Amino acid sequence: xxxxxxxxxxxxxxxxxxxxxxxxxxxxxxxxxxxxxxxxxxxxxxxxxxxxxxxxxxxxxxxxxxxxxxxxxxxxxxxxxxxxxxxxxxxxxxxxxxxxxxxxxxxxxxxx
Amino acid sequence: xxxxxxxxxxxxxxxxxxxxxxxxxxxxxxxxxxxxxxxxxxxxxxxxxxxxxxxxxxxxxxxxxxxxxxxxxxxxxxxxxxxxxxxxxxxxxxxxxxxxxxxxxxxxxxxxxxxxx
Lengths: 112, 117
Description:
The structure holds two protein chains of two kinds.
Chain A: E1 3-6, E2 11-14, E3 19-21, E4 23-26, E5 32-38, E6 44-50, E7 56-59, E8 62-65, E9 75-77, E10 86-94, E11 97-102, E12 106-111
Parallel strand pairs in A: 2-12
Antiparallel strand pairs in A: 1-4, 3-9, 5-6, 5-10, 7-8, 8-9, 10-11, 10-12
Chain B: E1 4-7, E2 10-13, E3 19-25, E4 31-38, E5 42-49, E6 56-57, E7 64-68, E8 74-78, E9 87-94, E10 107-108, E11 112-116
Parallel strand pairs in B: 2-11
Antiparallel strand pairs in B: 1-3, 3-8, 4-5, 4-9, 5-6, 7-8, 9-10, 9-11
């Protein structure tokens, strides 16, 4: 079946630091890949997505590239802000199972 | 705003009590889902409904039942609540299960925080 493994954190950074949150996946076929973000007290919001190999998803300064050869979809941001403090979830759908499968989430805290 | 609406936002139950969590979406989505979120466990799928009139078990269905009342509404029922069901519950919807592979993603509600004592 499908599965997603992401670094568990928590991750604590200073403002303007570089962010990487690793995500790898296991799936049959050609899944779509997603990053969702959950701000404190809220539901999940789609941050970015990529639907085929070598696609780069981007939004709000965050980027992730769909790497089929390494089955990875790492999230990066060049300069984080305090407002980026949230839980980030890597997810996939498609392949043998069209439902979303989530990683366990990574808590990011950005200090001023 | 358009989206997914969940009620209630907070609930405290005693062990053995029953309750229904309500979810409604106004985006004309075909598929709806119920997840629970627990610390260190991420989101786990309880039940889903690929289309109106169908429901299927997810990863952790025991102790729950669902009803897809119509295209808009998908409710989750706890018949006899247990402390292990203390969690945050999220409802989500998507335009079509099969087109999710094209990258449409899900829209989530803001969650129901349930405590069973």
